[in-house]
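Lecture 7, part B: from sequences to assemblies.

Below are the input chains for today's worked example.
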Amino acid sequence: MNGPAIAMMIVSMLVIWGGLGLAVLNLTRFRGAEPEETIRDL
Amino acid sequence: MARQDPVTATAPAEQAHRGAFSSRKVFILAAIGSAVGLGNIWRFPYVAYENGGGTFVIPYLVALVCAGLPFLLLDYAIGHRYRGSAPLSFRRMSRTGEVLGWWQVGICAVIAVYYAVIIAWAVRYTGFSVTNAWGADPNGFFFGDFLQVAEPGVGLDVVPGVLVPLALVWVAVLVILWLGVQRGIGAASVVFIPLMVVAFLALVVRALFLPGAAQGLEALFTPDWAALGETGVWAAAFGQIFFSLSVGFGIMITYSSYVGRRTDMTGSGLVVGFSNSGFELLAGIGVFAALGFMAQAAGVGVDEVATSGLGLAFIAFPAIISEAPAGTLIGVLFFGTLVLAGLTSLISVVEVVISGVRDKLDLSRTAATLVVVVPAATISVLLFATTTGVPILDTVDHFINRFGILLVAVVTVVLVAWVYRALPDLRAHLNVTTSFPLGRWWIVLVGGLIPFVLTFVLVQEVRDVLAAPYGGYPDWLVTFLGWGTALAVVLVAVVATLLPWSSRTPLDPPEPLTAAAGSRTDTEADR
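Predicted structure of the full complex, as C-alpha cells:
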C-alpha cells in the first residue's frame, strides 16, 4: 500500500470508529432519568 | 389478544398495549439491525471506491453529521413524541399528515416483498459455499442454474431452489414479528447483531491475510483529491448516508415509538449512526481485501474486478471462495452475515406495516401480523421466486428507492419543517431528556440543508432515468413495474388515509414532556 492510502485508511478508522467510541462513552456516562424497568435487562 | 412481555406489563398502558423495547440497549441494537443491511456490505465499498477512494470519507462524514444524523433524530423525535406508527404519528402531528405515514408504510410493504428473496438467495449460497456448487462459472450458475432467469416479463414458473428458502425466510419473519416488539424484534436483535459483527470481523481478519489484500485496500483508500470538487461525489455521499441509515420511510418512527418516554434519544441516535458507518467501513475493508486477492489471482487490476450489489455478492464472492485458502469459511461467514443483516432489516420494514395496520384498526399483534405477513409472503413468492423475478426485482428496487423513499423523504421534511412547523416542538421534546442537546442548528439542517440536498439528488435521478430506459428493460416493464409501483404506493396511501380510524385509537397528540416532569418522582411514576 502507498503512503497516502495508509494515511487515509487510518484517518477513516480513527474518525468513524473513534466517533462510535465517543458516542458510546457519551451514552454510558449519561444517567439521565431513564425508568429503571427499561434498563434492567441485558 | 397480543401477548404481553413481563417487562412491559408494568409500563404505561399505551406501551403495554402496543408493545415496547425493554431497554435503551435493545432499542439501539434493533435500530442498528435495521440500519445495517445488505447495502452496507455490497453498496458502500464500491460507492467509496468510485467516488474518490480515500477522500470519500470527507464528504461521507459531512453527509453523516449534517444530514444523516439530523434526519435520524427527526424520525426519532416524531415517533417518540407522538407515540405511534408512522400514519398515527403524522396524524397526531397534523390532520393532513396521515397520508405521509401511509406512503411510508406502502414503500415498506413493497420493499419487504423483494428484499426477502435476496435473503433467500443468501441462505442458499451459505450452503453452496460448502460445496462450491457454482463450479468454474459463478455468473452462469447464478443466473442460469440457480435462478433460471427467463426473458423480462411476468411469469409463474416457480424456481423450487428459491421458493423453499424464501418460504423459510417468511416463516422466520412471521414468528419473530408475532412474538412482539421485545420478545420478537428485541430478542432477535440482541442475538443477531453481536453474531453478525463477530462473523463479519472474522471474515475481515481472514480476508486481510489473503495474498493481494493490500492491493485491494490500496485501491479503496488511495485518495483522489480532485474528486472533492465534483458535485456527483458529494451527491453520492449524501445518497449513501441517506439510504444506509434507513431514514425517511417509517422504520425509525415506528421503533422510537416503542421506547420509554424518558429515554435519551439523541445519544442513542449518535450510537446508531456511527455504528452503521463503522460497519460500512469494516465492510469496505473486508470486501476490498477479498477483491484484491481476486485481482491478484486473475493477474488483473482491482478496477477490473471491483463491483457492487448482486454482482459482488453472488458472482465475485463465489469466485473468491473457490480460489481462496479456507474459501468455505469465507463463504459461510460472508453469506451468513448477509442473511443476518438482511433479516434484521426485513423485520424492521415489515414491522412498519404491522404497526400501521394495528394502530388504524386496533388489531391484536397476532391478527395484524397474519394480515400483513401472509399476503406479503404470497406476493413475494408469486413475483420473485419465479424465472422472471430478477428483472422485476431490479426495476422495482430502483424506482421505489428513488421515487418512493427519496421522494417521500423530501416531501416529509418540507411539510414537517415548513407547513406544520413542528421542528421547534420536536427539538424541545428531544432536549427534555438528552445527553446531547440539540441547538437551533438542528432546525437549520433539517429544514434547510436536508431538503435542498435530497432534492438535488432526486433531480439527478430523474434526469438519469429519463435519459435512457432503466437497465435496458422493455418500456412496458419500466413503466408498469417501475413508475407504476411508485405511483400505486401513493394511491394506496390516499385510500388508506380515507379509511376511518378505530374508535379505540386516540388521535390526540400525547401531552408534551416537560423538564419539570423529568424529575425522579415523575420518572418513577412512568414505570
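Note for the exam: The radius of gyration of chain A is 17 Å. Keep this in mind when comparing with the next example.
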